[in-house]
Amino acid sequence: MTIFDTSDRFRRSLLQGEEQAREEMTRAYGIAWSGIREELDRLTEQIQAALDSGLTVDTSYLLQRQRLQRLERVVIAQLQPWAAVATDTLTGQQRAMLRLGVRHAVGLLHVSEPSISLSFAQINAGALREMVGFAADGSPLRELLQSTTRFAADRVVDSLIRSVAVGLSPRQTAERIRDSLAAPLSRAQTLARTEMLRAYREATRQTYLANSDVVEGWVWHASLDARTCVACLAQHGSAHALDEPMQSHPNCRCAMLPQTPSWSSLGLAGLQEREPVATGEAWLRLQSAATQRRALGPRWDAWRRGELRLYEMTREVADRRWGTYRVERSLTELRLR
Ligand SMILES: [Zn+2]
To answer: Where are the domains of the chain?
Structure first.
């Protein structure tokens, strides 16, 4: 059973109203609530300390506090009585955005690291549910944690749940789980980023599925910067069906963009249609030779001559726990070394 099967099963149990799944979600909301409380207390202390020493308080603190207070109200409302199905439905405004096919639904749904905490004025109930599902008993994540941390697996899972609820970044989360993990910070960061982004992505896909009248599929969107790996670059711009989860390598920062109907099919004439996302291959061709070389290293020459395409630089990994995803082929495999 892959990690995606685990969350599918959890989601089904919730829909069927199974007692245990509901209890786990209620517990997760409890963790969320105490996490929000703690953040609020911490922030209030900081604000008070600043006031006491005669400093002006940065508005970002006040906004942050407002956001947490709002989150707290949401969580409390969620806790009694808890209802997952209702939170899956988008608000009218979110639906309208999707309907417009706004690229900026990206702003709303994109999971790139720095924006997580800012994007969700609402608690991301879907991501919270996915995180609980991914970490359910017997899941690959739970087993991995139990094998590495022995006694602290529960603590790490609770931290992940809390981070998703409060809207912490994977980096902030890594700081908090590193002691429980007894691992170097880099490993904690990989774990936090991989697990949190998986939860956000699956929640995104579930949202798209719930709105399949206006979302037809999803498009792989890589961050297209110096750190983007060739495997993700090769998949950038590719179209996927809604029933396909985004399966990627650890540390992947890619996002899923909604594929929305054209303006004309929505009955809106005379508007310029959105351009489809260009492929990673096309994007790279437009870059300077220096950027291309940085991205491809020793593979650049063969690529430039048209002998080796990006996709050919990757291979599939089929893992019975983490799913099927693509990674870069080694230079040796490509006979470039
Ligand atoms: Zn990626």
So the answer is: 1-214, 216-337
